[in-house]
Structure prediction request, 229 residues.
Amino acid sequence: EVQLVESGGGLVQPGGSLRLSCAASGFTFSTYWMHWVRQAPGKGLVWVSRINTDGRSTSYADYVKGRFTISRDNAKNTMYLQMNSLRAEDTAVYYCARGTSPSTTTPFQHWGQGTLVTVSS
Amino acid sequence: EIVLTQSPDTLSLSPGERATLSCRASQSVTSSYLAWYQQKPGQAPRLLIYGASSRATGIPDRFSGSGSGTDFTLTISRLEPEDFALYYCQQYGTSPWTFGQGTKVEIK
Prediction:
């Protein structure tokens, strides 16, 4: 059974940093692109970032570019999101997600339960 | 980026009725790489439809998707009590991946 478990969320002050983790199990992690998607309280889904299978190719939404860094450790079956210079508008539940197949062009079949990041003083 | 606009924002219907949700893209969606998700309060989204019209594993056949280019539709043929939820469309053919703002299907 595919499982994605996020951790690392919490309360942080504006300008602070946080690192999220997504622990994967039940599939061959190293063969799948992975994504982060966020959802502000009461708002819709917004794609944040993605990483390819070996971690050498990444992309970001414009509003996090230069502040967030996605990475992965295939030996640990874990993906990360390093978030720096956090702003109040980054407050959201952050989900990690995996596609339906190892193809790069797939929808998000599997999601974690999400981890809440709150940016507030 | 491709902007997806869903309509209506809210759909008020009774169990057993047919629901028709629309998703319009600001430019053509590559190869109909359009998906629909259902989300209930406090839960992660669940994939319903991909490739505009293919049902994901385990999704009941009362859910169907159609469309191409810039206009897509999710139809729920007969609403069951568990179908009252939020629905999002997503295009995954062009980076950045984008979602619509959502349509809430509520009990009338």
User: Anything to note?
Assistant: The first strand of chain B starts at residue 4 and ends at 7. The mean pLDDT of chain B is 96. The CA atoms of residues 30 and 93 of chain B lie 5 Å apart. Chain B touches chain A through 24 residues (CB under 8 Å).
